[in-house]
Known about the structure:
This protein has helices spanning 15-30, 52-60, 77-80, 89-98, 130-154; strands at 3-9, 34-40, 83-86, 106-109.
Amino acid sequence: MAKRVLFVCLGNICRSPLAEAALRREAERLGIAVEVDSAGTGDWHVGRPPDRRAIAVARDNGVDISGLRARQVRREDFRRFDLIVALDAQNLADLEDLRPADATADLSLLLDHVEGRRGETVADPYHGDHSHFAETWADVVAGARGLARRIGAEK
Ligand code: 4NP
């Protein structure tokens, strides 16, 4: 059965949509069945497409994320997904606060899946420029590769 993976950042318009796109692409490359989604801990951007700078960096790397729409994380997500992957430490702390008693999802930080980067966070590029979004892309690709390898090995 396909593993279900949910990426969570603050706004669901910059980092987690990029992580979603990176894992989808990596899983396709490796032939691994995954269902991928993303959400934000905050609700400010619900229903909106990703930030135009995130759309641009994804497009530069051959991926179209313009059709994604932001949503807020929900309690049901903790049962619906096998893995919930936070982009930074605050997202992880917020998820731990939200986590219902009957949660089955495994919570982690994206960069925990990258050798030598355990505990590191993917910096929020929202107040940055194009170079910050390029850094975000590099981080989410590294995380997606590690995650895809882990999921592939558990198959
Ligand atoms: P994200 O970036 O969490 O990577 O989607 C942000 C987007 C919006 C805001 C903060 C971070 N905001 O404050 O509106």
